[in-house]
Amino acid sequence: MQDNITPQRSGYVQFEARPYYYEYFGDDSHETICLLNGLAMSTRSWHSFLPLVQPEFNVLLFDYCGQGNSFSEDAPYSIPAFCHALTLILDKLHLSKIHTMGISYGGFVALEYARLYQQRLHTMTLSGILLTHEELFEMYEEISLLFYRTRQMEIYAYYMYEKIFGENFVRKIGPKLPEMRRKLVDRYADIPHCLEQLTLAQDRLFGALDSNLPGYKAIVTPTLMFAGAEDRVIPPAVQRKICDILPHTRFEVVEDSGHVVYIEKPEIFFPMLKRFANAKSLNFNSAVSAV
Q: CATH homologous superfamily of domain 9-133+208-279?
């Protein structure tokens, strides 16, 4: 993690009396990609990845409720509210359109943003995400909630890192895993309610899935979808179902990768993201082959 990163602009917007923190890297000469956080992330989680996106694009980061420097009290959160807050940030920065890239939980935010505000989008990139009701994914959520509510964060840290990474990546980073687990435990030891409320917000989003499905099907934003071939949180076959809902989607499977492709295969993920954003089209030169 780089600690000396300074955004060109940072600050807060207020939505429903809750502060949302944002960071903006760049100037007015490039289009902007908004990197949307996964569940246990914050703006700082992206700092070491900024050189993989810049200088071709500006980068916008922001914390949802329960993350980083944003509102973190134990109260219900809302993914649509996160989207409304993001629009306030765009207005404050005078950005008419952006590219979004959402991984895992951030993919839910990206999808909801496209349903509500696709007129503000150039492109959307998703990874490790689904838009259908799946029993195994619901079981995964229920298990996670049990960890948060019983404050068994040390066991949860073992469970999560076993679940999200591919085999070869774990072999490579094995010596770093104890430190990674400890940082996760320390970060949420006193505020497990943040993870619980974020997960419950996701549950409410899925509770409204059937009624909102026409809105998702109306999304015409060009969409790039990455799926790790070894993803055990949301297997590629499940992720592929999103193409039946979003017809303007290019689906790419990345071999030798688990749930977090951007971490495990950054040399594939970020070049493709940038080519796709530049092209604003599903027809662009690919670094991997869809299955």
A: Alpha/Beta hydrolase fold, catalytic domain (3.40.50.1820)
